[in-house]
Request: fold
Amino acid sequence: MNIKIGKTEITSSSPCYIIAEACENHLGDMEVARQTVRLAKLAGADAVKFQHHLPDEEMLPSAPMSDNFSEPLYDFLKRCSLKIEQHEELLALCRKAGIQYLCTPFCYAAAKELDELGVDCFKIGSGEMTDIPSLLKIAELGRPMLLSTGMCTLDEVEETYRAMRASGIPFALFNCTSEYPPKYEDLNLQVITEMRRRFPDVLIGHSDHTPDLYTSFAAAVLGARFIEKHVTTDKRRPGPDQSVSIDMADLHELSTGVRKIEAALGSVKKVNDKERPVRTWAFRSVVAIRDIAKGMAISPDMVWTKRPGTGIPSKEMPKVLGRKAKKAIPANTMLRWEDLA
Reply:
């Protein structure tokens, strides 16, 4: 199932779609949010993603505090979440800068506000993955959906997959581990392979919460068509997701690295044009390792292989043995067929 986000169509064979997740690292500061847009574009990301929270719609004030927050989540979101007018400004800035604006609504009311702005796609966080009633309600808005699967079993993913298939909305599933940051032993990246096998008719992505790039590169090799990575404009800034965020230099390395990996993933073994000149000196030829008199039969103690590869190929040495020299062949000389009877 292909997905079109703005002007970009993502398919099973298209370049990996790289999403810079701005999360709440801006702490409500619009200048930081604007800078995130501009720098993500310069770093080569395809999209920059924000979050739209309506705390009273999505949670109870008594919701437990997450380990990556220093205050109750409800209080933090009340203080730092962007308003819909600010999302509208960021959407316009993204269009001007030439980078895709994405956003995660954390409830149907937030999705409806974003829909009225004209967003192209909804990114759904792992916390909403099993909230099938909300997912189906958001699906009624008619926009593609990208769903993270952290904290879920494959059977739970299957339940949501079936519900989304029935909705008729284009969607993708993101492998994800909702730890901040995760233990590498908990990542189980081969789940990407299993999800591609189990859900062959939808695209599979990877949402990565590690503070480095290694597992994102591995996900690209395993066939993830989306890579989502938390970003920050400055690792020294305070923020709830700093421990799982990369900076813009890292984002540039991720973007360029994924493109190099994609270029290298061909499956054809051949002699490339740039290898051909190397063959002439790197391969080996049959060479006399002692003086060989005219008329002598070539024996194993007379020849061996040395560079360059412009004479009788070394693999042909068994065909040389037993032949007679038509002329004297000095030591350390390449043999040639015309010199042998």
User: Anything to note?
Assistant: The first strand starts at residue 3 and ends at 5. The first helix runs from residue 30 to 43.
